[in-house]
Design a protein that fits this description.
0% strand; 59 residues
Length: 59
């Protein structure tokens, strides 16, 4: 694989990793149960790409 064909893949992985990190941070800081469950649902949807590896420890 040449560098130009790897760039989109690397960018996609990096942005996904950053989004997961920010959602985990928001989930930890969530005060209400509704916010926590909404963010957990988003993480669950993102986790469908990596089966067997939960994105939240308690999900």
């Amino acid at each position: 694989m040449s560098a130009p064909s790897r760039r989109p893949e690397i960018r996609r992985r990096r942005t996904r990793k950053e989004k997961i990190a920010s959602l985990r941070k928001r989930h930890a800081a969530a005060t209400t149960d509704a916010d926590r469950s909404r963010i957990a649902a988003k993480l669950q949807r993102l986790g469908l790409n990596s089966p067997g590896h939960p994105l939240l420890k308690n999900a």
